[in-house]
Amino acid sequence: MNVLEKLEQEQIKEEIPEFQVGDTISVHAKIVEDERERIQVFTGVCIARKRSGVRESFTVRRVSYGLGVEKVFLLHSPRVAKIEVTRRGAVRRAKLYYLRDKTGKQARIKERKIDYKKPRK
Description:
By secondary structure, the chain is mostly beta strands. The chain is built from one helix and five strands, in the order αβββββ.
């Protein structure tokens, strides 16, 4: 293992929950204003995940006051305080960019009933 790989392994967060594209998530992001620091929650649908390892990022979209807002977060960034999965979505695409053209009921995503990642009892 070379030096770069060791540095990347040190920066990877372990407490990140399992989430996929189509899930509704809440991202608690640290916002720094002058000397003050606060946490802002951004809730929306994860429409894309890119790359892997330390460079992994994901895009969250929500409609606020009739205007679509998208934010791209780095998964292992120290600015991301916490990620909560609110709802699991059932989608068949890796990127949900088509949601940008949809409004209202057309932009809804069905809920995933069975979570295959969890072991059965």
